[in-house]
């Protein structure tokens, strides 16, 4: 399929990555974003596995590397800030990857790499879709009505456009956690190490360096599914402060930052379980289709790999139906694999008592000890020779073969 007019909703990571490849294959692409401008906030994310492979194909690895967060590894600390274990980014046991970047920086790189060839429209969103046999009419909040050949939903877990098309068909798997994110002022206790601290009441604090002289903070905690739903910003602040007050470590520092910030994010940690990824001329990609949550550490992998595969299938298939089916056939097994968490996770990592925290801290000490690190070093280092998680087809070759066969 060529010379098709495609609308993408959502300008985070999956949307611009998809826009790049669709434009590369000759499609006319519009990206609509509800926000008035790029949403450049967010926490540290990693570019590894299939995401790194695709970023390499796009010629963007150097740009991503230049925007590195400066993080050198992770330290597990107790509430007295004593280091229990530390794993540099070269270690297979570290959550820090070779390519660590802030979410907003990656969004901006993808946007700058596509903005001259893709039409971006901010401050608008889809309110109605009428599908016909050979086209679809899309109505926007602004009042505009346009004709497109396909609509690709690249929004977040709470996608409004997905609900517009699929109704309540999509299920969510709540993992028993809420996470708060905010950016805080750097303090003398902060360094180039990420710091992870377990506190009683089922709380995990993580403070991570960035490349802007500030620190990115996350607070993840056990909670009932609807415990914080429907609250405004002021109510969320009060509820979060009440939850972490007196929990030790740097909780008082974080309380001061929560009180002062206007950029607090607090939401449930849930996976998206969509039985269908496409309906007619509409298809889902990224978190809207298969959010695995930050707990899995696969969000960037899924978003960028999904965008690459979907665009390639649209470029090489004879019909959009075949492209959507091939995309789902390739991506669904990988998405489902990414959503599988080890037994007991995340619950085991969030003990509620001081005793439970002390037991978990004991495990950190063991895994961070020299003997265990030495034994671990005897095996292969997964970061040096990563196992291929999903095969990414070479669509340039497939496209050439399609051209020959159609002559």
From TrEMBL:
Domain FAD-binding as annotated: residue spans: 5-335
InterPro entries reported in the protein's UniProt record: FAD-bd (IPR002938), FAD/NAD-bd_sf (IPR036188), FAD_aromatic-hydroxylase (IPR051704)
This protein's record includes keyword Nucleotide-binding: no
GO-annotated molecular function: monooxygenase activity
Keyword vocabulary terms for this entry: Monooxygenase, Oxidoreductase
Keyword Oxidoreductase: yes
One of the Pfam families matching this protein, by short name: FAD_binding_3
PANTHER family the record matches: MONOOXYGENASE, OXIDOREDUCTASE-RELATED
Name listed for the protein in its UniProt record: FAD-dependent monooxygenase
Organism per entry: Mucilaginibacter roseus
